[in-house]
């Protein structure tokens, strides 16, 4: 395991992979109830924009 800088500790849709290391992505999908509140406010300001390829 690698330590993460504070700027990387947020909800993101990316995975950093380094040469020679194995990366495992574990995702839990659950049923979304139509009237249930969503635990993440996607309209809140994140503080910065990050984009990469």
TrEMBL record:
InterPro entries associated with the record: LPR1/LPR2 (IPR052152)
Required co-factors: Cu cation
Key word Metal-binding present: yes
Signal sequence annotation? none
Key words of the record: Copper, Glycoprotein, Metal-binding, Oxidoreductase, Signal
One GO MF term on file is: metal ion binding
Q: Which GO terms describe its biological process?
A: cellular response to phosphate starvation
Protein name in the entry: Plastocyanin-like domain-containing protein
The protein's organism comes out as Nymphaea colorata
């Amino acid at each position: 395991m690698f330590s993460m800088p504070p700027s990387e500790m947020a909800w993101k849709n990316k995975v950093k992979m380094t040469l020679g290391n194995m990366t495992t992505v574990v995702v839990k999908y659950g049923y979304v109830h139509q009237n249930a509140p969503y635990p993440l406010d996607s309209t809140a300001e994140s503080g910065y924009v990050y984009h990469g390829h």
